[in-house]
Prior knowledge:
74% of the residues lie in helices and 0% in strands. The chain is mainly α and 281 residues long. It is elongated.
Amino acid sequence: MTHPPTLAARALRHPSFAIGGALTLLLILVAGVSLVWTPLSPYDIDVPGKLHPPSPGHWFGTDSLGRDVISVAMAGAQNSILVGVIAVGVGLSLGTALGAVAAARRGWTEELIMRFTDFTFAFPAILSAIMLSAAFGPGIVVSIVAIGIFNIPIFARVTRASANAVWARDFVTAARAAGKGRLRITLEHVLPNILSALTVQATIQFANAILWEAALSYLGLGTQPPQPSWGRMLNDAQTQIFQAPWLALFPGAAIMLSVLGLNLMGDGLRDLLDPRLARER
């Protein structure tokens, strides 16, 4: 008698998840290693050694201030992960709570919550960051708050749509007939059954958060000097794009591979957690 393959075995055989997981693991490893070691300090300025091309002494070359590009890029991964984790965490927690309440209460409660999410969509991350920067000044906190606010309606909509489908299931009807309240049903039956959808969405939003953080830092609204950021590296590179193209190549490749890896992993998770999609392919 053959046993069905485990989730781990199916994950290793799934090309999207395997490639995406490897790229995401590489991102985490680079950020983790940079906490304790980088080839050179990402904060050391060496003006006489500025704009050196890639060499054995500087694997990715040096920037306009003489800083080691690979060291700055490695340290920049920390800020990307920090902003992504906190911003997605804010959106996931608040958005899931709002979506779950909307699905459980229905009626005017659902209508008010969903109209609130529609209103929040009128303030994308960049617009929110501009307003927050005008009031409090630019910084990494602005990036986290702006991206977190934009994530709330996304998770609220996903939660509400998924939860409504679960509320229509027979086992929820049986739970209600047994006298369970809406809160208990939501915690015991609804949320566990929509966890896979939320996990996939969180992975995708994590990729978007890295992209938005880089965009905000590029515009000068996010991470500020001397803290390393991939977006700021691209901003600094634009004036030397023809003289030193490696300044834009390496942070751009870091952003591309990170976002690609998380999106591929999210696509793989969707297939793995919902086998029907895998069979349809």
